[in-house]
Amino acid sequence: MSTVDPELRWWRNARTLRVVAIVLWCAVFATSLVTGWSNALYLAGGRWVEWAGAEWLVGVEGVTEPVARIAEASTLVVVWPVLIAAVVDGYARHRRGGGEAWCLPLAFGWPLLGLGLGSLAAVASGPVAWPLPALLAAVGGMVLAIHPVARRVLAARAARQDWTRAHGVVAQAVVTKVDVETIAGIDRWRVTLRYDDRAGQTRWHRSSIAFQERVAPRVGDRYEVRYDPEHPGRRASIHVDLSKTRGALR
Prior knowledge:
Layout: H1 14-44, E1 46-51, E2 54-60, H2 65-77, H3 79-96, H4 103-123, H5 131-167, E3 169-183, E4 186-196, E5 202-210, E6 222-227, E7 238-240
Antiparallel strand pairs: 1-2, 3-4, 3-6, 4-5, 6-7
């Protein structure tokens, strides 16, 4: 029998796991830097022969022994920190309540950025061409930017929805079409609504809601739609609660 709450153990604590994941991603970046630097020099100093229509590395010239050994060793181990960091980060996000898939951009972005920057460092110390290292670094940076950019976009959308829910202009909408769609294994009602805005312009809006008890939208049902009068056509500024019908059109 344990005297410690299982939820307090470090491998269950979301904050501790997050710190461990950050340390591991730093290790991934550092390992990738070394791998990119050493392999760029190793390949640039390689002796290549053409055989069977392809270039083959048959030896290394002009590269010091330590650099060659580092390149060979780092190539073998570079993938393991990535796998470990991805597993820990995914579990940490799971313990925080979701978003496990966001570890994938990190698993690609940090190695690419490290390899690119490491290879760029080798440009200054050896006969290494810069275009490929610069491309790797740029792609890695763009992949890493996916998460913060998506988070800001979603936060801005949520803020617009909150404003519309509280201050938006009310319009009475009628259902013109009802479909069923399945997203991530969850069945949802997909409803097309028609309403007139404050200027008399007829508009359509599509919204969806997961299947639930006593919620079954039908053609002719009426709903209360709220929208931003400054941006009446912006989807993110339109709010409708499909669980609250206002009756059917007679």
